[in-house]
Amino acid sequence: MTIKQMREIKEKRGYSYAQLSEYTGVPAITLQKIFSGKTKSPRIATLNAIEKVLGGDEEKFQGKAFEYGKSGNNVLMEEEPVLGNPDGIKYGNPGKRQGEFTLEDYYALPDEQRVELIDGVFYDMSAPRVVHQDISYVIHSAIADFIKKNKGKCKAFFAPVDVQIDCDDKTMVQPDVLVICDREKIKGFGIYGAPDFLVEILSKSTRKKDMTIKLAKYSEAGVREYWIVDPHKRMLIIYNFMEEDWMPVMMPLKGEAPVAIYDGKLKISLDEIAASIDEFGE
């Protein structure tokens, strides 16, 4: 199957890059570069993963993804946990399936059920570990102190806070740390629209979602800067969407990292984040 044929099938089925990333396991940014022609010679394993999905039965891949590794063997695997059964009978309207849920279903769930809704799909959110909370505190407090000291107009928040990032009824996310500079986006329920700066702290259950589905969602929604903290690998991954040809910048958790939306004047201590991991584990 040629890339042109793949593109035609993608458009016919109405897949967003985020959805195709979820089904194939290929990062959304990689898909964008392949279909736009920026990547001239994609890896065979990557093309095989895409062709396996686009060349197969559409219903087969709902809520699943392909994992392609160094061996080149593609194995169909379950995505991270989602709510209910495949037909959505346990949660919300009995006639709905994953991909069809809306904010009406989101608000109908019990208050103690922590979830995110992304393009009509529910994702379970386990309670954050202590290290997760402490890293959030380190980042949020540094940003909040900087804003206060400089009498800035932006506001810093940390989870849980609802973010209706697409301003539609199919998506509601809860980033770990966020900065909003347009005060009109701050509503009684949470945030309506794209934040300027977002941070997600990886865990085993959220790694794939944060690094693929949310990456595509945040870049498409208009987020200016996205940080991913990986406690297991002790790395910080920075996406500066303000750059025309943005590429991820990876940094070990040592020293400081500049925040691009503040032109590097605000720096976050990566040593403090590393110290948190040392104290509380990954």
Describe the protein.
It is a single chain. With 282 residues, the protein is of the alpha+beta class. Helices cover 32% and strands 21% of the residues. The protein contains 8 helices and 14 strands. The protein has helices at 3-13, 17-24, 28-36, 44-54, 103-108, 130-149, 207-221, 270-280, and strands at residues 64-68, 74-78, 115-118, 121-124, 155-158, 162-164, 177-180, 190-192, 197-201, 225-230, 235-240, 249-252, 256-258, 267-269. The protein has a 6-stranded mixed sheet, with helices on both faces. Strands 1-2 form a two-stranded antiparallel ribbon. Strands 3-4 form a two-stranded antiparallel sheet. Helix 2 crosses helix 3 (28-36) and helix 2 (17-24) packs antiparallel against helix 7 (207-221). The radius of gyration is 19 Å and the shape is globular. It starts with a helix and ends with a helix. 34% of the residues are buried. The model is unreliable at 62-90 (pLDDT under 50).
Helical amount among residues, as a percent range?
25-40%
User: If strands are numbered along the chain, what order do they take across the biggest sheet?
Assistant: 5-7-9-10-11-12
Q: Can you summarize the main beta sheet?
A: 6 strands, mixed
Question: Roughly how many Å apart are the termini?
Answer: 42 Å
> What's the count of strands?
14
Summarize model confidence as the mean pLDDT: 85
Question: What is the N-to-C order of secondary-structure elements (H for helix, E for strand)?
Answer: HHHHEEHEEHEEEEEHEEEEEH
Estimate the strand proportion: 15-25%
In one word, what is the shape?
globular
Radius of gyration (Å): 19 Å
Low-confidence stretches: 62-90
- Helix and strand content put the structural class at alpha+beta
Number of helices: 8
